[in-house]
Amino acid sequence: MILRRFFTLLLLSAPLCAHAVELPGIPRFIDKMVDKHQFKRDELVRIFQQAQHRQKVLDAISAPATAKPWAEYRAIFVNAQRIRGGLQFWQSHADALQRAEEQYGVPQEIIVALIGVETLYGSNAGKFNTLDALTTLAFDYPRRADFFRGELEQYLLLAREQNFDLFQVQGSYAGALGIPQFMPGSYRRHAVDFSGDGKIDLLQDPQDAIGSIANYLRHYGWQSGQPLAVRAGVSTDKGVASMAESRTLAEWEQAGVKQDDKQIWGGKTARLIAFTVADGQEFWLGFNNFEVITRYNKSDFYAMTVVQLAEALRAAKN
User: Fold this and answer.
1) Euclidean distance between CA atoms 197 and 208, whole angstroms
2) pLDDT score, position 73
3) How far apart are CA 284 and CA 220, in angstroms?
4) What are the chain's domains?
5) What gap in Å lies between CA 242 and CA 275, rounded to an integer?
6) Taking a C-beta distance cutoff of 8 angstroms, is the pair 167, 204 a contact?
7) How far, in Å, CA of 82 to CA of 312, rounded?
8) Region 154-183: what's the mean pLDDT?
9) Is 118 in the active site?
10) pTM attached to this predicted model
11) Looking at 109, 118, 153, 291, which residue is catalytic?
12) Other C-beta atoms lying within 10 Å of the C-beta of residue 315
């Protein structure tokens, strides 16, 4: 109790953090980090004295880009600028991309497209202070507080392991970091030293970002040489009512959903996905690898944008 009062008095003495003082759960979080990970209590008190509550973080997470209509969202990422930048990135890091495809089975264009969608090939990794963003979401965003407290825990561990200044790192409003925009937990679990320089650096090293993305996708079940998504025609509304279910080709055909390239199916299953376009709805069947991309960002808009940018990059390169 005395320590908690001491902590509160310290925070109250820091005018820039006045709002952060009111956030519930910080003293308990410090107790956990001290007991579980042997952090020094006074060090954590100092850290949270300086952490800022950011309303802009809450505003941003409440209005994600995926809330835009499909056509508007797609145009942000599948355009001449992203294709041109992607080809330059591909050329600059051709050896690393080829190694990643050979080692992890993930096509080079998918890796390039992910980096293009996430950070415009490393040129825009985010302008939110990561400590502030994660602290705000961990203690003032009830809907996903448990998740973000876990990521704040991972961020503090990551900073200790990587020996970087956690006050200086900037990323997305959700706390994603570096060229590939990994959350801190994913950084610790899936990042690899792909450049071979003896350290893992997703903040500055494109090679590490390339290998880490490929490793992440393989971990979540990427199947080398397998399809992502194909256009489908819907002749009835029977299948549309159960789009969340994965079905076989025969089952989809019975539901009135057809697509021309039956050779790619084999024994695979797929999920029906609908996108609203100018003249109605556009339907796709998404396979396992499409679902793996949604592990990066749980949005069909996001995954389809990656797929279509990758296709555009491959076509432009060839």
Assistant:
1) 10
2) 95
3) 22
4) 1-50 (no CATH), 229-317 (1.10.530.10)
5) 15
6) no
7) 10
8) 96
9) yes
10) 0.90
11) 118
12) 10
Q: Which residues lie below 8 Å from residue 42, measured CB to CB, with a gap of 6+?
A: none
Which amino acid makes up residue 182?
F
Task: Compute CA 38 distance to the chain's CA centroid, rounded to the nearest angstrom.
Answer: 29
- Tokens linked to 105: 């089975």
**Cα–Cα distance between 246 and 231 in angstroms, integer?**
15
Spatial CA neighbour of 172 closest among 300, 61, 48, 85 = 61
Distance CA 315, CA 30 (A): 51
| Residue 151 contacts residue 134 (beta carbons within 8 Å) | yes
**How many other CB atoms are there within 10 angstroms of residue 78's CB atom?**
22
What does DSSP assign to residue 58?
H
How do residues 252-266 score in pLDDT, each as one tens digit?
888 888 887 777 777
Contact 131, 51 (CB under 8 A): yes
Residue 276 tokens read as 């609203």
Gyration radius (Cα) of the chain, Å: 22
DSSP-based three-state secondary structure for 72: helix
* Alpha-helix residue ranges (DSSP H) falling in the chain: 2-12, 18-21, 26-37, 41-50, 55-61, 70-77, 80-92, 94-104, 108-119, 130-140, 145-162, 184-190, 206-219, 249-254, 288-294, 300-317
